[in-house]
Design brief:
Length: 485
């Protein structure tokens, strides 16, 4: 071993032994786990060499137990030559779930870097075939923070060996494969803080789903629009019980004066009297199926009605309003209502039917207040975190949101934009919403009392066994939730 290697190894070992590992729920751990995921997905798996160049230090030192020492230039050349030269037979790296540890580096109380250690599994990817697991290795990496960018400074890659096949009882990727669902995204909130962001599987049965995978989430659009509406109400720009006919009357119901009864409250609690969608009715026209305010009936049409009324009243479209009130303040940069120019199609979780057959991706180019939102686990997790912590609205309006506005059945109610389930242990109650489209199944749920919550995104149809496993074995009060289905 050369002196250079010896001192570098000694430095890393000393650093790890003298600095406490940070909590896996901490902001720094989540930030660096995300950085690790994005770096290797873009630089190694997708061969974005421009990204690689901008995220490795000028004095990079890379120590490999089989191919020796590499400086920045050698490392970059080897990545081009051995990792990125043949896209038809491509080496792929995946972090072994649960293996990552992070140790912060401080300079008189100010963080300037971090040491990561963990286990990498390496695969060969060929089009039309399953990834082939080729080897496993341990790694230790020093990251240095330069302004707002983390750059890789020192790397040890060692203990390379043939894969040891493991079949843990709760292997989510095996569960996905067995049920013809390519990807799963899970976000977990504990005590009001987004602590875990996990993405498993593939985008399309070939490409590994990255940390920032974009999912279509169907009706999980509605809670976003509901909170946008409540924020407008909180600002005095709208009233919860004001009639909407002054701003919008759908041409299909202009001769039925029951339109005068429609208010934001009735729409957010699904008491409009509308069907879910007019195209699902025999007439293909919007009609009242009962008097507004007399009972509950789930309706996407109601949310679209609300959107048009708000847009007409305020002279701004839904996208502008939600961007200002939610997406920008919460830094939800991967969330959008339609396939605009900012949509990164290379990160989209394509959708698959019950047999595991790919569904043709339908792109849409206008907002729908009830469906079609595109988002990531991290972004929607930020939204849930925000809403658990008061949603940025008055206490009185917040209480209206979680109040039992209408009874569905025993221990089952609807509030403003959310279904409410009561009867959990420890007097817990939950607000939840689901989303379902062909090849899409999503769930978001939060518990106001404990400030816990989670979301699950799936890009397939055959999901019952996946939900059962994830809920009953992994998530807060998930077993009780599963038994309430």
């Amino acid at each position: 071993m050369t002196k250079q290697i010896f001192f570098s190894v000694a430095f890393l070992a000393l650093s790890i032994n003298s600095i406490a590992q940070i909590d896996k729920k901490s902001d720094l751990f989540i930030e660096l786990k995300k950085q690790d995921s994005i770096f290797f997905e873009r630089a190694f798996n997708q061969c974005d060499l421009d990204y690689l160049e901008s995220h490795i230090a000028e004095d990079l030192k890379f120590y490999h137990d089989q191919s020796g020492f590499q400086n920045r230039n050698t490392f970059f050349e080897n990545t081009q030559k051995y990792i990125c030269s043949n896209p038809d037979k491509k080496p792929i790296r995946k972090l072994k779930e649960g293996s990552l540890s992070i140790f912060p580096l401080y300079n008189y109380g100010k963080i300037y870097g971090a040491i990561q250690s963990g286990v990498h599994n390496f695969y060969i990817r060929e089009a039309g075939k399953e990834d082939v697991w080729t080897s496993t290795a341990k790694f230790t990496t020093v990251w240095i923070k330069k302004e707002d960018i983390w750059v890789m400074s020192n790397v040890l890659s060692y203990d390379h060996h043939n894969p040891i096949v493991e079949t843990p009882e709760n292997d989510i990727e095996k569960l996905l494969k067995d049920n013809n669902v390519p990807a799963a995204g899970i976000g977990i909130i504990e005590n009001g803080k987004l602590t875990k962001i996990e993405v498993y599987g593939t985008l399309d049965k070939q490409t590994t789903a990255p940390h920032n995978t974009v999912f279509k989430v169907a009706s999980l659009t509605k809670p976003i629009v509901a909170l946008t509406t409540l924020k407008l109400i909180d600002k005095g720009l709208l009233d919860l019980d004001e009639p909407l006919f002054k701003y919008w009357i759908d041409p299909d119901i202009k001769n039925d004066e029951r339109y005068k009864k429609l208010t934001p409250r009735l729409i957010l609690t699904h008491q409009t009297g509308f069907p879910n969608w007019r195209f699902m009715t025999e007439s293909n026209k919007l009609t009242f199926q009962f008097d507004p305010g007399t009972k509950y009936q789930y309706s996407g049409e109601g949310f679209e009605y609300l959107r048009k009324a708000i847009e007409n009243k305020l002279g701004k479209n839904l996208e502008e309003l939600t961007e200002k009130l939610l997406f920008t303040p919460l830094e939800m940069t991967d969330t959008r209502f339609w396939w605009d120019s900012g949509m990164d199609e290379t990160r989209y979780a394509q959708n698959f039917n019950e047999k595991g057959e790919k569904i043709v991706t339908e792109k849409y180019y206008e907002a729908n207040a009830a469906a079609n939102l595109l988002t990531s686990v991290e972004d929607y997790g930020k939204f849930l975190e925000h809403i658990i912590n008061g949603a940025g609205i008055s206490k009185n309006l917040y209480q209206e949101m979680i109040q039992h506005q209408v009874t569905l059945k025993e221990n089952d109610f609807f509030g403003l934009g959310w279904e409410i389930l009561a009867g959990f242990s420890d007097d817990e109650f939950a607000l939840l919403h689901t989303g379902k489209d062909p090849g899409v199944s999503t769930l978001a749920i939060w518990f106001p009392k404990s400030k816990n919550g989670y979301l699950v995104f799936l890009n397939g149809d055959n999901v019952d066994k996946i939900y059962e496993d994830i809920l009953t074995k992994r998530l807060y009060l998930g077993n009780e939730l599963w038994n309430k289905r």
